[in-house]
Amino acid sequence: MESPFKADILKGKVAFITGGGSGIGFEISTQFGRHGAAVAIMGRRRHVLDAAAAALRSEGIRAFGFEGDVRKKEDAARVLEEAVKHFGKIDILVNGAAGNFLASPEDLSPNAFRTVIDIDSVGTYTMCHEALKYLKKGEQGKGPATGGLILNISATLHYTAAWYQIHVSAAKAAVDSVTRSLALEWGTDYDIRVNGIAPGPIEDTPGMRKLAPEEMQNKYSEFGPLYKLGEKWDIAMAALYLASDAGKYVNGTTLIVDGGLWLSRPRHISKEEVKKLSRVVEKKSRKSSVGVVTTSKL
Ligand code: COA
């Protein structure tokens, strides 16, 4: 689908995107590139990075892949430094790297829980922490009064509760908290806007392939209809809005992009029944409250 934004809204910006070689991260890399940004992508697998960077470059986007694991502080520091050497600066950090799999709590070891917290929460914090010196106001490529931007990719699982994802729910709750705290502290001190995006189920992503794989599809649709799946494009457009000047007054927000799915719940009574019964119940309740008033007056 064609982007509704002008092609130069990120002109001159350099974006650094963890998990930018595949899925939602790759779509954000692509759309940021198509709207004028140079793109540094970070990931663990060299061949994925190379293929992604080559695809971006084939569209005329300045792009390069940097190998590293967000769980390792030394990788984070090295890769950010390499990106700054390559592109001259970093304006936007997108934390898209994440880990997920389905498991019930009784089958999830503390180490498995910790692994996802390490990737999603600690990894996000580590990247923010190591990127601060490039993102803050007055740094390389930034004006004395303007800083950069951080976007943390989150989820909606923890707004309520999600089956078989206790680890990811806890990890993303921490990510949202980091988003708000950094928005407060680094927004105030360094002019860095910090926001998040909470995608719903997005089709054709590694996440969906892991959480609703073909092997589980039949069973899955029995217990939880897929509702409307989103597209990677939907998330990239939200990221563009937040990263562009259109979002210049938005700080500390996690934008939910899920078609309203997290609000959905089974209808406990049909519309026809409501129509039929609501007035009857109302009449009855008025009658009984009149009764109460009359009695109390006596
Ligand atoms: N069910 C239960 N436990 C699982 C599991 C599963 N499906 N997959 C892994 N684990 C456990 C392992 O058994 C291990 O725990 P243990 O030491 O107590 O046995 C722990 O998780 C770490 O697993 P390991 O394979 O050593 O970690 P890793 O660093 O190689 O991989 C993952 C990390 C497990 C998160 C892996 O899925 C990953 O790399 N994910 C990134 C990509 C991704 O998930 N994309 C979707 C994003 S939405």
From TrEMBL:
It comes from the Eukaryota. One of its GO terms (biological process) is fatty acid catabolic process. Transmembrane segments: none annotated. GO terms for molecular function: 2,4-dienoyl-CoA reductase (NADPH) activity. SUPFAM superfamilies: NAD(P)-binding Rossmann-fold domains. It catalyses: a (2E,4E)-dienoyl-CoA + NADPH + H(+) = a 4,5-saturated-(3E)-enoyl-CoA + NADP(+); a (2E,4Z)-dienoyl-CoA + NADPH + H(+) = a 4,5-saturated-(3E)-enoyl-CoA + NADP(+). One of its GO terms (cellular component) is peroxisome. Its EC number is 1.3.1.124. The keyword Thylakoid does not apply. It is an enzyme of class 1 (oxidoreductase). Keywords: NADP, Oxidoreductase. PANTHER family: PEROXISOMAL 2,4-DIENOYL-COA REDUCTASE, PEROXISOMAL 2,4-DIENOYL-COA REDUCTASE [(3E)-ENOYL-COA-PRODUCING]. This is 2,4-dienoyl-CoA reductase [(3E)-enoyl-CoA-producing]. It comes from Canna indica. The lineage of its organism: Eukaryota, Viridiplantae, Streptophyta, Embryophyta, Tracheophyta.
